[in-house]
Design brief:
The mean pLDDT is 96. This protein has one domain: Roll (Thiol Ester Dehydrase, Chain A). The longest helix has 17 residues. It is 22% helix and 37% strand.
């Protein structure tokens, strides 16, 4: 059975400049760095929408990634300023789903992907019910 997913209008855009140490000898971004750009997008989303890693930690939870999808379309190059668009995908399941688009300076899609995170307490226990702070956040954002 497929889980119910609803794309939201909770989107954050963050610009990142490709640094020299993120590229290979040809000046092309190494494929593993796109995952770091996803993290940059997730952190920007958390800051903008008050669900940051520190908010989670202060409420006694961590959200490890349990699934990652990364679909490459075009390369980025040293010096490019790329836009990372991060969208929250709502689901009734006790997890956070984010989708990403990385856009190059010419406005072309470079990479898209998705991460799925679950909630664990600091003893490593998987949460089967939404933590109260997460329920409150979703309620405030109109996601119920």
């Amino acid at each position: 059975m497929r889980e119910k997913r609803i794309k939201t209008n909770l989107i954050t855009s963050e610009d990142v400049r490709v640094r020299f140490n993120e590229t290979d000898v040809l000046g092309v971004v190494w494929h593993g760095n796109y995952v770091k750009y996803f993290e940059d997008g997730r952190e920007a989303f958390g800051r903008e929408h008050n669900i940051s890693y520190l908010d989670q930690k202060n409420n006694g939870f961590a959200t490890p990634i349990i699934k990652l999808i990364c679909d490459y379309k075009l390369p980025l190059y040293f010096g490019d300023i790329a836009k990372i668009e991060t969208t929250y995908i709502n689901t009734p399941a006790v997890k956070m789903i984010f989708q990403y688009k990385i856009i190059n300076p010419k406005g072309k899609l470079v990479c898209q992907g998705e991460t799925v995170q679950v909630f664990v307490d600091f003893n490593g226990n998987l949460q089967l019910k939404p933590p109260p702070f997460f329920e409150a956040w979703k309620l405030k954002k109109g996601l119920f």
